Amino acid sequence: MIARFFCARQSTSSTLESRRAPVKKDPPRSAAFRARGNAHRPIRPPPHVLHHTGYAPAAYRHTTLEDMANFTASGAPLGFTNPPAPPFTPQSLQAADELYPYDPSRSLTDAAALRAQGFTPEESAAILTLVKTRTRAEAKFGERARRLLLTEEGFEQSTRSPVARYHAQRFLKAQVGSVADLGCGIGADSVAFASAGLATVSVERDPVTASFAAHNLASYGQSRVLVGDVTDYEHGALCTAAGEPVQGIWCDPARRELEGAKKTRTERIFDPEAFSPPFSFVLSLARLGVPMGVKLGPGTAHEAIPSLEDIAGAANPQPRVEAQWVQHAGSVVELVLWFNAAARESVARAATIVGDAGEVLGEMTSAEPLGAAAPLAAPDDGAGLPVAGGYLYEPSGAVIRAQLVHDLACAVGAHRIDPRIAYLSAEHPLPASYAEFAACYEVLERVPVGQKQLKRWVREHGINAVTIKKRGVDIVPEKLRAALLAGVKKKKGEYKPATLVFTRVGGSGEDAARTEHVGWWVRPQGAAE
């Protein structure tokens, strides 16, 4: 095991008259608009550019119609086309900017005001939807969200900005200077690649989504967006704006499909061959030997992760495969499969914690592929269970998915309480250098697991707030919490919380009769008594 540590919006009810710009005169910006950081007035492009595209991101100095005209002027390779103009007028985008951030309490008022300014019901709905999506996207993209064109589906599947920046750094470290982003969606990863200095060619099947990606990338001179089916991709056929074939590939297969008569909601797809493009096509690209990264859901079955033999061939005699689970802000957000030169030598699997700037806060790696580790021996009759005064470690999701729990236990001097359960027990607190890889709890005492006995325990200890954590047991935390606190009266100013952990230890399968359910009252390391 190799471990590495790095370790109040103003009212605009009376200003909508200025939100829709007259054709011949730019309106003055409201004080509320300037106060939200929009220092520049919109730039009106020359008439010939307006005629060329029919669209202008009017509220943004960094992206003009002239940018868009130049951006889409180059010819597209066979099988691909240039994206159309996005379905927004300059006035629509200006109105969307004025209404940012979205305020649900004003939605009816804003819709009526837009209609009064001459926008059709469809245009008004599109403007408000864009504002709403931009506001939601701020948590993922930061302040940049207010300048993006977004679809609901594209936003939901897109990569968080810090994680996308990390992807770009991986390509740079592999000495890749240009990337084909196959299935780019709204262009979240492409923007990160371009921001890092990589030339990008972004391909999207849906023309409207591609037009949004083109808008979002228009200020990057070394970027192109094309409309087409990525399965038409031929290595060497896609060239950068400078006319050079792209060196690397990034692929984010669509894992959602529209359902229902109006296709108003999406559902996850878990069959890799049902992805768009299918996973078999993705592997065919890896067999070309090019540096490549593929984003998958963090819950992807381990059996779906390809072996070296799966991508080896005459064109790829020395293949490399790295499975990396990426965690950001406490959540495992993705599994990335890195292939060939984009994969690191002697790294088969990794748990990587990424910070808000795209930096690596901590990382654990192993050269052993998934499933190669020897099975662990079960603890002897619960001898490894935590006791009062000891400590319980809860490994992070990335560590668990990368099957690095045993590696973590060895590194910190702990042991698993059961070979099938991702809890560790130790006599000492978790070392600070490993804080990114696990949560640490001080064990206060063992608690009963029967609901009646546990409710009595809660009452006797004066507990009036409960946090429940569990692994391997059939418990619904919300229901158990409600049952334990039923009838508990919380006096004003009194707050006595308890964190309860439940799990199982012992036999499984034919030996399931030896299974024991256990529970502890714990306190997070560093929490006040």
How much strand?
15-25%
Distance between the termini: 36 Å
Helix percent reads 25-40%
Poorly predicted sequence stretches spanning 5 or more consecutive residues: 1-73, 258-265, 374-382
Q: Indicate the overall shape.
A: flat
Strand order of the largest sheet: 1-12-11-9-10-8-5-2-3-4
With helices defined by DSSP (H or I, 4 residues minimum), what is the helix count? 16
How many separate domains make up the residues?
Answer: 3
Superfamily at the CATH H level of the largest domain? Vaccinia Virus protein VP39
Main sheet overview? 10 strands, mixed
CATH architecture of the largest domain: 3-Layer(aba) Sandwich
What structural category do the secondary elements indicate? alpha/beta
Radius of gyration computed on alpha carbons: 27 Å
| Strand element count | 19
Kindly provide the name of the CATH class of the largest domain: Alpha Beta
Return the CATH topology of the largest domain.
Rossmann fold
Task: Give the overall pLDDT as a whole number.
Answer: 84
